[in-house]
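Weekly sync, protein design subgroup
Attendees: M.S., D.O., the rotation student, P.L. (late)

Item 1: inverse folding check
M.S. brought a backbone from last month's batch and wanted to see whether the design step gives back something sensible before we order anything. D.O. pointed out we never logged the input encoding, so this time it goes straight into the notes. Structure tokens as presented (96 positions):
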């Protein structure tokens, strides 16, 4: 599985990148058919509270899963997005 992390209009720290990669790799344990994951980190209105947005798109044979969350920190947003994606992946596995 390949992981592509894109930070829009800011520099991504090595610690945050490592944290995201570690968490995304846990999705691989759910289903090893995952092809790739695209992660987009964005800031909405830098002066406001709860402005860290994460969007993730997981490519899977025959379908794609997507989740987007906004919170105070990128770490919190990452955990929320992965929880949503986990539900989608498990639901898809039950269908098959």
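Designed sequence read out in the meeting:
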């Amino acid at each position: 599985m390949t992981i592509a992390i894109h930070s829009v209009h800011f520099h991504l720290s090595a610690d945050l990148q490592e944290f995201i990669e570690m968490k995304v790799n846990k999705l691989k344990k759910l289903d090893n058919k995952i092809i790739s994951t695209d992660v987009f980190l964005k800031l909405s209105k830098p002066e406001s509270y709860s402005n860290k947005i994460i969007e993730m798109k997981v490519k899977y044979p025959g379908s794609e899963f997507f989740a987007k969350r906004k919170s105070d920190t990128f770490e919190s947003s990452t955990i929320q997005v992965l929880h949503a994606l986990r539900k989608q992946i498990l639901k898809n596995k039950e269908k098959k």
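Discussion: The first strand starts at residue 2 and ends at 7. Helices lie at 14-30, 74-95.
Action: P.L. to compare against the previous round before Friday.
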